[in-house]
Structures are given as C-alpha cells and as structure tokens.
Amino acid sequence: MAKVKAEPKVKAQEKNKGGRPEHIPTAERRFMVKGMRANGHNLEEIAGQMQIAPRTLNKHYGFEIEQGAVDLNARVVAAVYAKALKGDFQAQKFILKAKCGWNDNEVASTNINIEPQRVEAPIIEGEYVDLDAVINQ
In the 8-state DSSP scheme, what is residue 132? Predict the structure, then answer.
C-alpha cells in the first residue's frame, strides 16, 4: 500500500475567521478616548466617533474611559471651588450641602427659657417712672 502524504496544517492565524478584523488600540486612539470622556461624551458617542462597537470600546479602552471620567469630575469640582472662593453664594451653598452636610429643609431654632419677672412699682399719676432703675434694684 502506498502512503499518502498529509497536507500541511493551516495555522490558526491564516484561517479566515469572518467578521471584522480585531481592533488594535493605538496611543492616538487612547488619547482621543480619554479626551472625549473628559469632555463629557458618553460611551455611545465615543464608539460612534471611532467607528467601533461600545463593547469593543470597553474591552480595549476601559482604563482611558475611567480616567477621562475622573478628569471630568476633577475639573468640575475645581471650577465649583474656584467660584465659591470668589464669593459666588450658590457655589458656596452647594459645597456646604455636598461636603459639610448642610440642609435647607432644617429650621434652625434655639430654645431659651427665660422666666418672666414681675415688677411692682408704685405709679403716681402724672409722675415719670424710670423702669430701668426699678428693674435694676
């Protein structure tokens, strides 16, 4: 019997997987994702701009998405603090509520118990009575 020579195996990389080619992140794209997120864009907008699916965006750019959101929050907080320090009452009020636990709904009240004092002084008709002098006796 004659031996038949087997065909060489095709490497996995050479096989046609079908679909889109795998996304390869670049430094430029990482910078773009972080910048767009820091400017307040949501994930769908960023994915649309990059022409990739939101799932692919999360898979390859998770760190940049997180850092961009942190940068945005830091910039907003810095802006509010700057306004508060310049005297903006609304910004000051916001910081006091958010950071110091202040509440507009609580009514500040102080109970002071002072017993009323009875002052007895003879009053003669037509005569002037100095009440301060009577109270301080």
Answer: H
